[in-house]
């Protein structure tokens, strides 16, 4: 492929939705920038990069903590040096801890700041780092991975729900500010292999999976590949869609009342 062809950078792409997005875009002939946080994720990120390379993509693999602006700038600059362009950014990096919403004493300022630093500030910083290159693309696209919790005020914690609500609002603001770059968000419900699988023990995760399945109208949970396919559609086949928050929750919101 050399340096021709479109380029997509994906944060949080060693696991879950981010990894699925890297595989989806590479399958469609894109170069991909794969990021991972710390040595603990390196082997998983390398496995994703191997899959993408086997699909014919050229990969950039780089450590990235979106909380640090300098690392966001380095990721964007490394992509420009490697490929000469950035056409899409998929913001998948996220964090959470499970804290009951009615246990107000358990959610302190430090946890709120920790959650916002990754889910909101970090998302803004990497988008800012890529903004000029996305504009230069002529068909730039940003897809933010939000959550149905940001629309319903539900989820793993009040801080998480609030952070995803902020992601939704930021999506609208950036869609105006960055046009003609398109900025959209996907609000999934429970996703297999998503954040809960990395912060809950096996028993608690099984209970959460059963509860989310039972509470959804379609009586199922989503797979990471479904979210990736929607991110691909919004990027490659939706030139008229911007500033939208697309729910992908198996009808969970229909039972929210």
From TrEMBL:
Question: Do the record's keywords include Oxidoreductase?
Answer: yes
Enzyme Commission number(s) from the entry: 1.1.1.-
Instruction: Please give the SUPFAM superfamilies that the UniProt record associates with this protein.
Output: NAD(P)-binding Rossmann-fold domains
Q: Does the keyword Transmembrane helix apply?
A: no
Ordered alphabetically, the record's keywords are: Oxidoreductase
Example of a GO MF term: oxidoreductase activity
Chain ranges of the Ketoreductase domain: 6-194
Q: Which domain of life is it from?
A: Bacteria
Q: Which Pfam families match?
A: adh_short_C2
Q: Which residues form a coiled coil?
A: none
Q: Which family does it belong to?
A: Belongs to the short-chain dehydrogenases/reductases (SDR) family.
Output the PANTHER family linked to this UniProt entry. Answer: 3-OXOACYL-[ACYL-CARRIER-PROTEIN] REDUCTASE, SHORT-CHAIN DEHYDROGENASES/REDUCTASES FAMILY MEMBER
Descriptive protein name: SDR family NAD(P)-dependent oxidoreductase
């Amino acid at each position: 492929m050399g340096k021709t062809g479109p380029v997509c950078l994906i944060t949080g792409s060693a696991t879950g939705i981010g990894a699925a997005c890297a595989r989806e875009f590479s399958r469609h002939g894109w170069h991909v920038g794969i990021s991972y946080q710390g040595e603990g994720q390196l082997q998983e990120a390398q496995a994703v990069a191997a899959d993408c390379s086997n699909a014919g993509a050229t990969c950039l693999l780089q450590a990235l903590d979106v909380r640090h602006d300098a690392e966001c700038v380095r990721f964007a600059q490394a992509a420009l040096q490697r490929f000469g362009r950035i056409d899409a950014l998929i913001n998948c990096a996220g964090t959470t801890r499970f804290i009951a919403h009615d246990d107000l004493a358990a959610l302190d300022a430090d946890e709120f700041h920790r959650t916002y630093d990754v889910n909101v500030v970090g998302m803004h910083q990497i988008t800012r780092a890529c903004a000029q290159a996305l504009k230069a693309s002529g068909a730039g696209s940003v897809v933010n991975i939000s959550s149905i919790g940001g629309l319903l005020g539900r989820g793993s914690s009040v801080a998480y729900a609030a952070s995803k609500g902020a992601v939704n609002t930021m999506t609208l603001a950036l869609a105006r500010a960055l046009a003609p770059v398109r900025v959209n968000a996907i609000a999934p419900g429970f996703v297999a292999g998503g954040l809960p699988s990395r912060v809950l023990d096996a028993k608690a995760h099984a209970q959460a999976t059963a509860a989310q399945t039972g509470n959804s109208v379609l009586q199922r949970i989503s797979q990471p590949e479904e979210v990736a396919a929607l991110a691909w559609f919004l990027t490659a086949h939706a030139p008229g869609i911007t500033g939208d928050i697309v729910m992908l929750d198996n009808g969970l919101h229909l039972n929210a009342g």
